[in-house]
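ok so I'm stuck.
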Amino acid sequence: MLFLAVVLSVISSVLTATAVVSANVTVTASTGSPTTLTYRGTITRAGVLRDVVMAVPPGSTGRITSVNGTVTTASPGVLRWRPAKPIAVAVGARLAIPLYGLRLPSGGPWSLVFKATGTTGAVLSSGSGILGLQATVPPAAVKIIATNPIPGQTTTLTYAGTVGRAGVLSSVRMQLPAGASGAVTSINGTLATSGGYATWRPRAPLSVKAGARLSIPVNGLVLSKYGGILTLAMSASTSTGTALMSGSTTLALIAPPAAMPAIPPGSLPGGRAGCPANWPATATENAKTGTADWVIPPSMNGALAAYLTQTSATCGDIVGLKVTSGDPVSVVAYRMGYYQGLGAREIWRQDGVPTVIQPDPTTGGTDNGHDLRMTSAAHWSMTTTIPIDGTWVPGTYLVKVSGGGVASYAPLTIRDDSGAKHDLLIQQATATWQAYNNYGGVSFYTSLATGSGRLTFDRPYAEGQGSGQFLPLEQGLVFWAESKGLDVTYWTDEDLDAFGGQVADRARTVFLPGHDEYYSLRMRAALSQAIAAGVNVANLGANTAYRRITYTDDSRRAWDIDRYTAGYTSTTWRYLGDGYASQPLLGAEYICAVVGNTLTTTNGWLFDGVEPGTDLPGFVAGEVDYVQPGLYQQAGQAIVASATGACRTSGQATPMHVTTYTAPSGARVLNGSTFAYGCFLVARCPSNWAVPAPSVTSQQAVGAMVANIAEWVSRGDLVVPIDTAKLRAAVPKQALATASQP
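replied:
not stuck anymore, here's the structure
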């Protein structure tokens, strides 16, 4: 007889579109050892079945097989079954997956999770079943109440359930939240913990009737700093093992946003001789003559490299430039903007600058017994200095160094420290540029074993022809904002760390760029404080504030990251607990790096001016965020756009969610959840994304989307003209490193 591992039996009752379908998960075991566990669950969403994951009792052993598909280990204690061929399933169909050859540990009962996922990443069925109790016991109507349901804190969990069969109660077994600890106590009996369960025993045999309600408090439980929406089981039995009750329920342990320290505003650098009190408006500046000479064609890529001694500066500063070449070079500073579509204006130049071939960068260093593997060119000699005077209008700059037939950029941001408050501040993600920089040695990502634990700005960038991730990801936002004549100013990640208490005094709305991943405590605290003070934030990217860094000193020329405590895990903000995830701050959480996938427009406000049903191929690209169910969501949070991507490493489908919320201060916050906004605005996405070159239609659609975002998030302060700006300069595509973050 052929036993089908996936039984698609249609439920006999007629299911209407409004019917509530339960997953109705059950787990049964055959007699003997080894045994066969059979997991059954009802399909609650139609689709094409990709896989089914099933938890097995902790401590299970054996050589496990199934039929009509393959079984692999998904993670410790969790198995994944994949069908031998695609299977389309309808709502109400019943799945049955047998696992042969299991040897079960002693104990039980166990609450075992079951989840079926479709090829699009959608969950088709999800729930848990209880194994180890007689199926004849009526449902226990389990309820669990937490006095303080905050991950990382101490609480009392009270487990309550209805007795299904009369008998003499010997014990009550309660599943604890994963990672919970503490010297727990209860009342009217003894309490012991083992293997993730607490077992309560009465001081004397206790006769109970069917329908009686048991309520057992577990006091002094210290919750893990990681919470979520947990499924926990409760059961009661006699001394002979006869089940008197069994059941499970969900318990939401959701961490609120973590408390952040207050960041004082400090003081501006102050007026300096020769520096104007007011700078020209964006439209006035961009009416000046532009040039395409800033572009470095691929034919000029070579060994020449350069870096500046500051990531940002203000009027009155003197910035050093270090170059390795050996040929005389021209050093030309270009302010990036619109400028008749040419993208830049020449501000300063110095020709015939002598250079040397600098010594190789060094890689090494230790701190607290840890190998830092920091690559540095700090020992290079100074090539020249650049005075930042009143001709340097605040903005983003590329310093082009060329000679001997080759050229390279060095990026610089000029702040407006005049005290003016602008409608819009665009941040440059310089800390993240440096994390991916492998010039002369290693980056953070070279490997888990050898990647840097300290990164320094004292070396050129290997990406973007020396521009870091500016050309691949960020130029588009600058070009767009200046083409619209918006009242915009700029600063870097280092400025957010140094002057973060001034955000509310400098700007009404902040745009974060495509890939702003690396945040210090001061950076994160300043952004949180700004939102609480009414500053609007549009994160036009993904994977933001994901990794935790510490600048080594007030110069902010280097930063450390803890990759020693727990590898990649301890480098993340979330390692400190769920309250430090990105989602509580910005609305969505990083999930994975993706290949380019399509976003299809709808009729929501985000797509005003774009025909509903317009496909934007490749817009879901780089890395993406989604709303994770077990993490904190701000009151009134909404998903205003969604799509599906495919993770680069696994190929599995994954959701992408664009989210919005309004903070109690009235600040509006949008999380864009994909890297692609900036590159679509100039129709030039990274060359290694393998996505279609953005068409005119796609560029215009994303331009309309960013305009809608600007007007929504600013509460109407930013009024964006509807004209379409096109970059006329022929800029080469740049490769961009991305990494799946465990």
